[in-house]
Design brief:
Elements (H helix, E strand, L loop, with lengths): L4 E6 L5 H17 L3 E6 L5 H10 L5 E6 L1 H12 L7 E5 L5 H5 L6 H10 L2 E11 L6 E3 L2 E5 L4 H4 L2 H7 L1 H14 L5 E6 L4 E12 L21 E7 L3 H9 L12 E6 L1 E5 L5 E4 L2 E5 L2 E13 L1
Helix pairs in contact: 1-5, 2-3, 7-8
């Protein structure tokens, strides 16, 4: 395909002035070289999804999502909900950019412009969450999770995110660790590869290996393999938990006896307790839920 008409969907709270200057420079380069550029700024939750649906239903050839993982998630949801699925480019900003970092996407205006000119694309997998407690389905580009510390991302206030960046997540995480005593969740897990009922502290269903800034949390994950990676941390003593988290940096945590790690196309998880699901850093409903992969669902410029 030939890209000519480009829609920018921008989260103005992500990166603030640095991002604004980068988009201005990039837009000028594109306009000077014959591209048509449209630009929309999001103001509230789901604006990214709504604008992506509009772009897919118009004459645009490419959507550029400008923001963090939450912005990318909204835009991807809009693309997935549309009949005409436009390719996506990600200009990362904001506090957490796990997916852009995983794909090693360019972050300067000139490199990003050259990427658009090349028009090289890959078809990546997308995760889908079907929750019994929600009327609609959710999608994730990076990870769906529940349990210990997964509520940190959406407890951090947007203005604090903008000022402190990634440190805001660390501060909130420390606060949460002080408030909880690692209360385990009893869940039923049902997939072809693994079936069990057990007490766990955390589960992750991941599309990529980089989660929360940790590059090897799901060390064998691959957005091109048509599978999701499941990481389960079982109920553990504090000493075991410390050992697990120390090994996350190298990916060796998956060899711990209290960690279950496997690949699957689909997993169903339920609990008698109210358990919130985190989807790409945002609140995404409650268990029970089915998590499944949609292979090669999205075209991304690289």
């Amino acid at each position: 395909m030939k890209i000519k008409n480009i829609k920018f969907i921008v989260n103005p709270s992500s990166g603030r002035q640095i991002m604004k200057r980068k988009i201005d420079v990039l837009s000028k380069m594109l306009l000077d070289n014959g591209y048509v550029v449209g630009k929309t700024f999001t103001e509230k939750k789901n604006d990214g999804m709504i604008e992506a649906i509009k772009a897919c239903n118009s004459n645009f050839d490419l959507i550029v999502a400008c923001g963090g993982d939450g912005t990318v998630n909204e835009v991807v949801k809009g693309i997935m909900e549309s009949d005409r699925k436009l390719p996506l480019a990600i200009l990362a900003s904001g506090t957490v950019n796990d997916f852009a970092r995983y794909l090693n996407l360019p972050n300067t205006a000139i490199d990003f412009y050259n990427m658009i000119r090349r028009e090289k694309m890959i078809e990546v997998d997308i995760g889908k969450v079907i929750s019994n407690n929600k009327s609609n389905q959710e999608y994730f580009v990076n990870v769906a999770a529940a349990g210990m510390l997964t509520n940190v991302a959406y407890q951090v206030q947007p203005d604090v995110k903008a000022i402190l960046g990634r440190m805001a997540y660390y501060f909130e995480g420390v606060k949460e660790l002080g408030k909880q005593n690692f209360d385990p969740i009893r869940v039923k897990i049902d997939s072809v590869e693994y079936v069990n009922e057990e007490e766990i502290l955390l589960f992750l269903v991941s599309n990529s290996s980089s989660i929360g800034g940790f590059k090897k949390l799901a060390p064998e994950a691959d957005v091109l393999d048509g599978l999701l990676d499941v990481v389960i941390i079982k109920k553990s003593a504090i000493t075991d938990l410390a050992n697990i988290f120390m090994n996350i940096l190298t990916g060796d945590h998956i060899n711990h006896s209290n960690v279950v790690y496997y690949k699957t196309k689909s997993v169903y998880i339920e609990s008698k307790r109210t358990v919130n699901i985190d989807i790409d850093g945002e609140y995404g409903g409650e268990l029970p839920a089915k998590f499944e992969v949609i292979p090669k669902a999205l075209k991304i410029l690289v």
